[in-house]
Recover the amino acids of this structure.
């Protein structure tokens, strides 16, 4: 019973990591495209920094939750 639960947890974590890396690749592709559009149309005002920053904040939060950084920090805090 415990092996089945562990397997399901690991499977869910692996799917979350694959989803995060897919999202990160899309983020890089889309923002590269936005930078090219911005620089080719008007390089006087660099507006690409706004969607780049907003997306970075959201993806960092998702990444921290997906890659279990908060759970490791919480576990080490509880052990002390």
């Amino acid at each position: 019973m415990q092996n089945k639960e562990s397997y399901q947890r690991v499977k869910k974590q692996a799917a979350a990591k694959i989803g995060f890396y897919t999202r990160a690749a899309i983020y890089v592709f889309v923002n590269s495209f936005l930078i090219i559009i911005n620089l080719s149309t008007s390089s006087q005002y660099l507006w690409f920094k706004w969607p780049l920053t907003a997306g970075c904040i959201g993806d960092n939060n998702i990444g921290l939750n997906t890659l279990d950084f908060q759970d490791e920090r919480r576990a080490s805090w509880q052990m002390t």
Q: What stands out?
A: The chain has a mean pLDDT of 81. The chain has three helices and no strands. The two ends are 31 Å apart (CA to CA). Helices lie at 2-41, 49-66, 69-79.
